[in-house]
């Protein structure tokens, strides 16, 4: 079986695209992974301006969301990046096989550095090397990620291949990405030609996991569809709004988009679809929100869960680091 690894940013405002595209994949990975390892990346959060006093709060928010969605610390390894120092050490060691030109060309670096008003930190440039260290430290095979991370994964594969060629074949595993078919496509409800996104989307078009039920229903009721008359309830490249609603309904119900299309054959118009998807999302998120509130209150239990995850993670990463240091000739003779 394959080792699965993914990283998630510490923010409290996870949305439906994160949920369908990433979080439900994480939960599914628990039963397939050997092991399934999920890391909340607080070190990555320092690459742009941030409030130190809030970072731990956001890590707790994210931990509670992941546990509420069904991650089980007994069946996966859930930990905070900053608790396992092997990540930062491996990041430095990997800089020796990371090409500056390649880092400079990364779209995320270009976009984020253009957006910085004051300091463009070197951390922003090295972000993908730390991300490579995250995955390579566990010799992971599969990395579930969104479409936007494809470039970082390619870079990580190059780093692993270059490392093995330079220092010793089979020291590191060259990972594969796993981009989910549907989740990668969840779109903004107001601007369905764009991805649902906390930073780039519209507030009314973004459904947050912790939105009140009425707010969720309202956002779906106001979702932008199209002006086909009579309304055509099917998916298609020419119908991004309707396609998105059908995809969301199918994912939260755990059925295929085709079966949703068949079911909608008797519907009167887009209104029926909007109400159905709004209700289905409220129904799916209600129990999650309830669990979230209970979990989020008990910060020491969240810290315990993270500590348990970190000690399991450290045991694996420490073995990789020992091998990497040995083949690189770093430190005392092993
Ligand atoms: N950069 C990823 C994102 O923004 C988060 C991340 C950090 C990650 N380390 C990772 C994803 C390792 C996959 C594997 O979504």
TrEMBL record:
Q: Sorted alphabetically, which Pfam families does this protein's record hold?
A: tRNA-synt_1b
Biological process annotations from GO = tryptophanyl-tRNA aminoacylation
CDD domains assigned to the protein according to its UniProt record, in alphabetical order:
TrpRS_core
Q: Which UniProt keywords apply?
A: Aminoacyl-tRNA synthetase, ATP-binding, Cytoplasm, Ligase, Nucleotide-binding, Protein biosynthesis
Q: Does the keyword Protein biosynthesis apply?
A: yes
Q: What EC class is this?
A: ligase
Where is the protein localized? Cytoplasm
The UniProt record lists the EC number as 6.1.1.2
Identify one Gene Ontology CC term for this UniProt entry: cytosol
The chemistry this enzyme catalyses reads: tRNA(Trp) + L-tryptophan + ATP = L-tryptophyl-tRNA(Trp) + AMP + diphosphate + H(+)
Query: Where, in this chain's numbering, is L-tryptophan bound?
Result: 134
Which GO molecular function annotations are given, in alphabetical order?
A: ATP binding; tryptophan-tRNA ligase activity
Q: Does the keyword Ligase apply?
A: yes
Q: Where does ATP bind?
A: 9-11, 17-18, 146-148, 186
> What does the subunit comment say?
Homodimer.
Q: Which family does the UniProt entry place this protein in?
A: Belongs to the class-I aminoacyl-tRNA synthetase family.
**Biological role stated in the UniProt entry:** Catalyzes the attachment of tryptophan to tRNA(Trp).
UniProt-recorded name of the protein: Tryptophan--tRNA ligase
- Gene that encodes the chain: trpS
